[in-house]
Amino acid sequence: MSSVLITGASQGIGRATAAELSRRGHRVIATARKLEDLDGLDVAAKLRLDVTDQDSIDAAFAEAGEVDALISNAGVAFSASVESLPPEDLERIFAVNTSGTLRVTQAVLPAMRERGAGHIVYVSSLLGRVALPMRVGYAASKWALEAIGETLAAEAAQFGIKVTLVEPGAVDTLGATAAPSAGPPLAEDPYAPALKALAALRSTPMTPEEVALSVADVIENPDAPFRVPVGSSVQALIEAHDSTPYGELFDIAAAARG
Q: Taking the model in full, what pTM does it have?
């Protein structure tokens, strides 16, 4: 069984994935910014790791020992239109979702390269493929993450290192439902119709456990594809995005939701 390090395991997808992989017999190293947030998880090891703090990353990987697979899951969400997104909030989102992923990837790559084996899994998003209104900061960070993943897959294949991007649709997590936002009150927001349409897309979210099953299956599948969309309507929406005038996407998404 694999030794798997997971970032952002305090809640949501990361916590559910840690529990699922542990149940399957893997050596799971669960990490979070606050160690106490990992209480109650039945895993092999629990370590403090803040993806924006290089010292904490270095300390966690030194203590973790050999890591066969990295699941980079730590992330933050934010709701704002392009007009209302504060640049400093965009920088904060990128610091966690994108630069944080780059930092932990760089921490694990040398040992994987020397061994000639390893698996790096990025928990991306539908919004890493389809940029929807009112999620510009989050989508931009995930599009950048997908670019890192594509580049790494091309660079690391020669060393026997596999890369997978897992792309769930709407997920019922605290990070998503309680995400901070910027802009005027809804009644005064000129982009309110787009915000209401986005809420409709989240009307039937997946559970973190459903996504965790897909992530765990990826870890156990030596032939896992590079991209793994998760959710019944996700692949249809991605295909629609690639072939449909953008203004019609909400109608297609609503139809996919049934």
A: 0.88
